[in-house]
Specification:
460 residues, alpha+beta, two-stranded antiparallel sheet
């Protein structure tokens, strides 16, 4: 038993409700991923318990000790938050046999529960009374070997979402998937199309954001035949070669490198994932030398992302669609395009904030590194230092940073009726300030407006 497992076991045993259940001679087992992580020496804050007693009886015993919420009809789980508990809800359930929950559990039912789970490494339990490790599928050997093995032959047919969970764990823990398990995943992959959208989308979000190496997770999805059912535009990039010297990998493997190269922040991970999705749609020979080119792919990538976002319902994950789309649309901006103060101001205005510039810069650096061009990454980092040095409290990124607003324009126009011309003039003023032709100061902008000859009065 590892030191971490022993320490976590003692923490769980000291919980008041656990002491109460054990004192009442109710068998309580610590199960699932928490046991796996403790054996691997990994910290985990999840706590799942299996109690060999009728669910209703356990619920009645817990109610005086904290807040209890029963979820699930076929397989009820008690979400329990003990009094004074600051962590996530503790999941407590009776043992489950494939297809049903045990209403009158016996000691032997624990083995049936464990062997009906997805992976052997998730099919272990610790008896909280004795500290004994229950390992009916020899999962400890799989942990030592660093592999994922299905707990039974129908594991992924029973719930195809387990394919994505296995992929996520592969990127988080770094395990490989055993060959027969991978075949089972392929056989069940079609079932992903029938999953409830909410379950699929939330798991996809976790798969991209949680792993240390999301590329490993994406490779498992590819090898499991799952990409066509959850990320079809990414699947189309497999084997799509890109010309040297700008790239040294196909679009798919370039994307994997880019996703690994950014921080585990949803905005960056999703932008890196989708930034080249449009390349298969615009691939064509260059008119000058005949080399394959991808002109305009950023626009197609943005369109495909917006479509995928809506289809998957990614708003439920609070992912900012417009921010990801902006990063994708601007990811091709080159250092050569940003050599003058006016060009830099215009670009910063398109991004809208210093924070978005930093996010864009991280994505751009990851993109160039993923292309095998470290020298261009150094150029970008140098550009970043130059731009940061030029930023100050008076920098103008968007309309809200202007020293004037629509009321000022209405006043200066002789109280002309409001209309679309107000927004047009404000955008013109923003362009003028970012170009450096007028200062962002109220009197200077008033003179600029007057110099226009109040042409807006003739607009219809």
């Amino acid at each position: 038993m590892t030191r971490l497992l022993h320490g976590r076991l003692e923490e769980i045993r000291r919980l008041g409700f656990v002491r109460r259940l054990l004192a009442d001679r109710i068998p309580v087992y610590w199960v699932g991923g928490g046991v796996r992580d403790a054996l691997l020496g990994r910290e985990s804050h999840d706590l799942d318990l299996c109690v060999l007693a009728p669910t209703g009886d356990v619920e009645n015993r817990l109610r005086p000790l904290g807040r209890v919420h029963r979820v699930g009809a076929s397989f009820p789980v008690l979400k329990f938050k003990p009094e004074g508990w600051s962590g996530e809800d503790i999941d407590i359930s009776g043992p489950v046999k494939r297809g049903r929950i045990e209403t009158d559990p016996q000691a032997g039912s624990l083995t049936e529960d464990l062997t009906s789970r997805d992976l052997t490494v998730n099919a272990m339990a610790v008896d909280l009374a004795t500290g004994e490790l229950v390992d009916p599928l020899n999962a400890v050997e799989d942990l030592r070997a660093g592999r994922f093995r299905a707990a039974h032959e129908a594991a992924f047919r029973d719930d195809p979402l387990r394919i994505l969970r296995t992929a996520r764990l592969a990127g988080t823990i770094g395990f490989s998937v055993e060959a027969s398990t991978l075949r089972s995943m392929n056989e069940a992959a079609l079932g992903i199309a029938g999953l409830a959208r909410e379950r699929l989308t939330l798991e996809l979000h976790r798969l991209l954001v949680e792993p240390v190496q999301p590329s490993v997770s994406l490779l498992v999805l590819r090898d499991a035949g799952a990409l066509p059912f959850c990320m079809e535009p990414l699947e189309r990039t497999i084997g799509l070669e890109q010309p040297a010297p700008y790239h040294d990998a196909d679009v798919f493997h370039h994307t994997l490198r880019a996703v690994d190269a950014v921080r585990a922040e949803p905005l960056l991970r999703f932008a890196a994932l989708v930034h080249d999705w449009g390349k298969p749609l615009v691939m064509a020979p260059h008119p000058k030398d005949g080399r394959i080119s991808f002109f305009g792919h950023e626009k197609e990538s943005e369109r495909l992302f917006r479509q995928w976002y809506d289809e998957m319902g990614l708003s439920m994950c609070r992912l900012d669609k417009d921010a990801v789309a902006l990063l994708v649309r601007q990811h091709m901006r080159r250092v050569e395009d940003l050599q003058t103060p006016a060009a830099i101001r215009r670009f910063l205005g398109r991004l809208g904030s210093p924070e978005m510039f930093e996010t864009w810069l991280e994505l751009a650096v990851a993109d160039t590194l993923a292309s095998g061009q470290p020298w261009r990454a150094r150029e970008l980092l140098g550009l970043g230092r130059t731009i940061r040095a030029s930023l100050n409290d008076s920098s103008v990124f968007s309309l809200r940073d202007l020293a004037i607003n629509g009321k000022d324009l209405l006043l200066w126009s002789g109280h002309r009726e409001p209309g679309p011309w107000v927004g047009d003039r404000l955008r013109q003023a923003l362009d003028a300030v970012q170009e450096g032709s007028v200062e962002n100061e109220r009197n200077a902008l008033r003179q600029w407006f007057v110099r226009l000859g109040n042409e807006g009065n003739r607009d219809k």
